[in-house]
Inverse folding.
C-alpha cells in the first residue's frame, strides 16, 4: 500500500499500542529534563532570572532539527528499517547517552551544552512519531492514535517525575548535593534509569511495527524528489525577498530598542532570531537565482510560506498553549520554593523538599493526562475536537492561576488536575486536527514545521519572562505562573476559530 493512498486499513488496539509505545520512553526523558533542569542549573550556580535564557538551548535545537528531520524522513525508504524508524533508533541512542552525561555536568556551561545535545537527540526520535500516526492510521482513528501517544506520555512522565523521590524515600539515596556544585545522587540515578527506558521502549516500536512500503515506482520517486525544482520560481523568489526584508527590519528594530533602552541582554536573542529567519528566506531566494531551486533548503522555505490554512489557524492556539507550559516548566520550581516553602537557597533542606514536591506534582499532572487521554476521543465524539480542546485548556489555565492563592502545599495536587487535562489535550487534539489538512507526502515536514509554534513561544518565553520577572513582577516568580494560566485560557478561545475540515467529513460519513 502506498503511503500516499487515501485509504488505510483500521489497526487493532495492540497495533496502535505498539506503534505508540516508544513515546513512553521519549516522554520519560523529557519529563526528567523538564522537572530537573532548572534544579541542576540552580545547583550549578545559575541565577533565577537567567533560567529562561539557559533553557533557550532546547527550543532553538527543536527549531532547527524537527523540520529537517521531517523533510528527510518524508524522502527516506529502507526495505528493512522503513521510513520513520531509522530516525527513531538513531535519536534514541543519542538521547540515552545524553541523559547519562547531563547530571554529571561539573559546570553550568556544560549542563547547558548537554541540554542542547539531549534535546536535539530526543527531537530526532520524537518528530517522526507525529508523522507516524498520519502515515499508518485512517482519519477515523487519528484522534485515538494521538490520544494513545498522550497516554504513554502521561505514564512515562509520571514515573520519571517520581523517580528522584522514590530513590530518596524508598532507597534512602540523598536528594541533597554531597558538595557545592554537584548534583544529588537521586537525580543522577533517575537520569540513568531514564536513559535505559528511552532506548528500550523506542526500539520496541522499531521492531514491532512495520511501515507501509511505497507503491510500485514510488521508491525511485523518493530518491529523485530532491532533484526536482520548485514550481513558480519567480513568484516564490519575490515572496522570499519581501518576507526577508520585513523580518530583517523588524529584527533590527527590536535589537536597536534593546540596545538604546539598555534592556536585558536576553532580549537580543529575540531580535537576532527574527533577523536570522529573514536571512533564511534571503538565502533561499539566492539559490533560486542560481538555478538551484531543487535544493531541500528551498523546498523547506517554500512549503513554510504555503502551509495549509488549518495549520495557520492552529499556530496561534499552539503559541499561547506552549507559552503557558514553558512558563510553568521554567518557573514552577522557583515559584513553589519561594512562594510556599519560603526559601531561595538551593543548598537548604526546605528548598530541596520543595524541589522534590515539584517533581511529584509534575508526575501527578502527567498521570492525570494519561487518564484524560483515554476520555478525550469520547468527549470529542459527542462535542467536537475544538470544544474538547477549549474545555481542556480552560481547566489548565485555572489550575496554573490557582498556584497564587495556595499556601498549603497539599492543595497543589488539585491544581495539577486541571493542568493534566490540558496537557493531554495539547499533546493530541491539535495534531489530530492538523493531520487531516496535510498532504501525505509532506506529513513529516509539516509536523516538523508545526513544532515552530511550540519552539517560537519558548524562545519568546526565554527572552521576555526574565525581563517581566525583574521589571514587572518584582522577582515574584509565582506571577509568571499566573501569566501562563491567562495565556492558556486565551489559547482555548482561539481554538474556536480553527476549521477542522476532516472532522466535518468524518461526521458526514
Amino acid at each position: 500500500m502506498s503511503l500516499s493512498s487515501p485509504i488505510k486499513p483500521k489497526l487493532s488496539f495492540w497495533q496502535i499500542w505498539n506503534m505508540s509505545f516508544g513515546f513512553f520512553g521519549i516522554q520519560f526523558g523529557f519529563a526528567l529534563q523538564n522537572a530537573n533542569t532548572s534544579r541542576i542549573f540552580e545547583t550549578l550556580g545559575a541565577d533565577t532570572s537567567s533560567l529562561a535564557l539557559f533553557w533557550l538551548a532546547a527550543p532553538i535545537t527543536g527549531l532547527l532539527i524537527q523540520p529537517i528531520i521531517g523533510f528527510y524522513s518524508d524522502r527516506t525508504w529502507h526495505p528493512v528499517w522503513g521510513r520513520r524508524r531509522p530516525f527513531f533508533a538513531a535519536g534514541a541512542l543519542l538521547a540515552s547517552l545524553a541523559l547519562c552525561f547531563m547530571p554529571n555536568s561539573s559546570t553550568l556551561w556544560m549542563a547547558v551544552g548537554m541540554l542542547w545535545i539531549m534535546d536535539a537527540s530526543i527531537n530526532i526520535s520524537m518528530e517522526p512519531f507525529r508523522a507516524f500516526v498520519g502515515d499508518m492510521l485512517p482519519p477515523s482513528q487519528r484522534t485515538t492514535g494521538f490520544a494513545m501517544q498522550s497516554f504513554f506520555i502521561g505514564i512515562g512522565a509520571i514515573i520519571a517525575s517520581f523517580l528522584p523521590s522514590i530513590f530518596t524515600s524508598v532507597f534512602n539515596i540523598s536528594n541533597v548535593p554531597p558538595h557545592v556544585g554537584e548534583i544529588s545522587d537521586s537525580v543522577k540515578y533517575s537520569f540513568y534509569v531514564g536513559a535505559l527506558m528511552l532506548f528500550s521502549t523506542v526500539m520496541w516500536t522499531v521492531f514491532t511495527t512495520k511501515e507501509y512500503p511505497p507503491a510500485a515506482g514510488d521508491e525511485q520517486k523518493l530518491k529523485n524528489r530532491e532533484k526536482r525544482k520548485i514550481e513558480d520560481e519567480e513568484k516564490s523568489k519575490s515572496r522570499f525577498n519581501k518576507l526577508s526584508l520585513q523580518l530583517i527590519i523588524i529584527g533590527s528594530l527590536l535589537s536597536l530598542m534593546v540596545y538604546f533602552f539598555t534592556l536585558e541582554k536576553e532580549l537580543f536573542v529575540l531580535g537576532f532570531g527574527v533577523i536570522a529567519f529573514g536571512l533564511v528566506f534571503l538565502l533561499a531566494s539566492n539559490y533560486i537565482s542560481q538555478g538551484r531551486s531543487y535544493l531541500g533548503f528551498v523546498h523547506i522555505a517554500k512549503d513554510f510560506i504555503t502551509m495549509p490554512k488549518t495549520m495557520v489557524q492552529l499556530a496561534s492556539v499552539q503559541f499561547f498553549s506552549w507559552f503557558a507550559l514553558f512558563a510553568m516548566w521554567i518557573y514552577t520550581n522557583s515559584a513553589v520554593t519561594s512562594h510556599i516553602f519560603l526559601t531561595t537557597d538551593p543548598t537548604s533542606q526546605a528548598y530541596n523538599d520543595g524541589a522534590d514536591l515539584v517533581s511529584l506534582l509534575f508526575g501527578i499532572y502527567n498521570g492525570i493526562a494519561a487518564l484524560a487521554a483515554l476520555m478525550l476521543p469520547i468527549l470529542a465524539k459527542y462535542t467536537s475536537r475544538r470544544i474538547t480542546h477549549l474545555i481542556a485548556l480552560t481547566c489548565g489555565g485555572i489550575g496554573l492561576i490557582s498556584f497564587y492563592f495556595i499556601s498549603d502545599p497539599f492543595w497543589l495536587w488539585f491544581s495539577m488536575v486541571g493542568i493534566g487535562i490540558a496537557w493531554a489535550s495539547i499533546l493530541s487534539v491539535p495534531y489530530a486536527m492538523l493531520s487531516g489538512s496535510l498532504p501525505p507526502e509532506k506529513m513529516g515536514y509539516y509536523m516538523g514545521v508545526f513544532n515552530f509554534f511550540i519552539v517560537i513561544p519558548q524562545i519568546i518565553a526565554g527572552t521576555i519572562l526574565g525581563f517581566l520577572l525583574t521589571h514587572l513582577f518584582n522577582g515574584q516568580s509565582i506571577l509568571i505562573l499566573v501569566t501562563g494560566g491567562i495565556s492558556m485560557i486565551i489559547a482555548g478561545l482561539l481554538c474556536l476559530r480553527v476549521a477542522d475540515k476532516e472532522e466535518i467529513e468524518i461526521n458526514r460519513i
